[in-house]
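User: structure tokens for this one?
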Amino acid sequence: MTSTDLVPATGAQAVQTVARTEGRQFLTFRIAEEEYGLDILRVQEIRSYEAPTRVANAPAFVKGVVNLRGVIVPILDLRIRLGQAGEYNAFTVVIVLNVAGRVVGVVVDSVSDVLELGADEIKPRPEVPAAMDSRFITGLGKIGDRMLILLDIEAMIKSPDFGLVD
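Assistant:
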């Protein structure tokens, strides 16, 4: 042990030390063959899929609404929104999110687990051709040989593409 080991870090050194040791937690879920993650702090609850009440003239990815303890919650099929076909089975779930001051449910194929990723396990979003929309990808999580696509679910829900927030 050296004498510098006993001296507390200050300023930028302290911030870097905290950033390296603190992880972020992500709820992981699957859509088709891909595994995604979203900030666990946005998740209100996870529910089994039940057919919502359809809304007239809604886009195909808006499955309808459900009454969740007195709150009318729009249900969006994230699989359809991301260009994947999805069948409804026993593993299909709705992740109820609290984003942009609203409660919204998103349908996914299945929920895997909650993972804590350190800063060194999160890689920046890849540079991709302009034809591919990556604006809602915040980065890639790497856990062993698993690759996790990290979504900015709040930006996605707030986007005009979803039409939920003014």
